[in-house]
Write a structure and sequence with these properties.
The chain is of the alpha/beta class. It has a ten-stranded mixed beta sheet. A hairpin with a 4-residue loop joins strand 8 (261-264) and strand 9. It has helices spanning 38-54, 74-83, 99-107, 121-127, 132-146, 164-173, 197-216, 229-236, 289-294, 322-329, and strands spanning 4-10, 58-64, 88-91, 110-116, 149-156, 178-183, 222-223, 261-264, 269-271, 280-283. GO terms for molecular function: 4 iron, 4 sulfur cluster binding; catalytic activity; metal ion binding. This is Radical SAM/SPASM domain protein, ACGX system.
């Protein structure tokens, strides 16, 4: 069985949209848009292959941007990955997809293509670009026909949380293969204030009921319970139980930051997580990934530093979202602002 290591790789900042919650274009001022050269992209692939050889892993790329298809050497990269039998997912926009492009992507080895819906039509098009809601759902068909797994990801905030159940209905109707949502990370250019823990828990409760109803009806959409606070919700509702054979000090789930994931930015910066804006640890053209992993990245896996999670019985499986905590308070190890848990149910200790 192949053991993968994931690299979220931003090959360009170029994009057809200027989303209000984008970590590239939101905040105070936009940086100069960067794109890797063809030579630099080849060096990235070689560095990642070296890393995986050292740690006996197989590289898996989540290639994104901006919109990766806008990179002038995009198709050269596709051919390179195909020649090396390196699997990948694309995370981009719907605007340049059609049946022919999707068939070409499939031939090159693209397994999944992720697009976004951040509300129903009016809300999504306000966040992103007029017409993109309808176009996104239309292009799901192109991906499905080509045999590429279509993914819809939603970014949840106080602005759109009440529309998530309706988005679920739309993605099921469009025969999206995978649906998931994650939470908005404050960047300095906030479009709304944070949800309360109780508001977010209620959303999970509503979505859980919809997911189960659709699953029971045999729908083909897989509902990926991506946010780690799903673990807390399922623990409270009896759907997740602590394994009896769990070992102290082991990490079994939760955030992959510092665990089995690295982000590579368009300027070559290596980050523990792209959503943790101050998590730069090195540069891929100056440093060897295999060395960075055991040195600079270590500061993101000191699990006893979590101010709230370190005292929780779910520490090894949950830990909420450190990116949301960091974006809200500036502390990677701070409490997740949407976590509603207040007590360790085993020890009785206040969290």
């Amino acid at each position: 069985m192949r053991s993968y290591f994931s690299f979220q790789w931003h090959i360009t900042d170029e994009c057809d949209q200027r989303c209000k919650h984008c970590y590239i274009f939101s905040g105070e001022g936009c940086k100069e848009l960067k794109s890797m050269t063809w030579q630099q992209m080849q060096e990235v692939v070689a560095n990642c292959e070296d890393f995986c050889k050292v740690y006996n892993r197989v590289p898996y790329f989540y290639i994104t941007g901006g919109d990766p298809i806008l990179h002038p050497d995009f198709w050269k990269l596709m051919v390179l990955l195909k020649s090396k039998d390196i699997p990948f997912t694309l995370m981009g926009n719907p605007f340049h997809l059609d049946d022919q492009i999707c068939r070409m992507l499939k031939v090159c080895g693209c397994e999944k293509y992720q697009m976004s819906l951040d509300g129903m039509r009016e809300t999504h098009d306000w966040f992103r670009k007029p017409g993109s809601f309808d176009l996104t759902l239309e292009k799901v068909g192109c991906l499905n026909r080509a045999g590429i797994k279509s993914i819809i990801m939603s970014t949840v905030s106080k602005t759109n949380r009440n529309e998530i159940p309706d988005i679920i209905d739309e993605v099921v109707k469009a025969k999206v293969k995978v649906f998931a949502f994650s939470r908005y990370v404050p960047t300095g250019g906030e479009v709304d204030t944070s949800m309360t823990p109780q508001e977010y828990r209620r959303l999970l409760e509503i979505c859980d009921a919809k997911f189960k109803a659709y699953e029971a009806a045999g729908c083909e959409t897989y509902f990926n319970r991506k946010d780690h606070l799903w673990t807390l919700y399922e623990y409270e509702t009896g759907q997740f139980k602590l394994p009896e054979n769990a070992c102290d000090g082991m990490i079994y789930g939760g955030c992959n930051c510092g665990n089995c994931h690295i982000t590579i930015s368009s300027n070559g910066d290596i980050m523990a997580c792209r959503r943790v804006t101050d998590s730069r640890v090195a540069n891929i053209w100056e440093d060897r990934l295999a060395d960075i992993w055991v040195c600079q990245m270590e500061k993101y896996r000191d699990y006893d530093k979590f101010k709230k999670c370190s005292k929780c019985e779910l520490k090894a499986w949950c830990r909420g979202c450190p990116a949301v905590a960091n974006g809200t308070t500036g502390d990677f190890y701070g409490a997740d602002p949407q976590c509603w848990k207040t007590r360790n149910e085993i020890t009785g200790e206040e969290l």
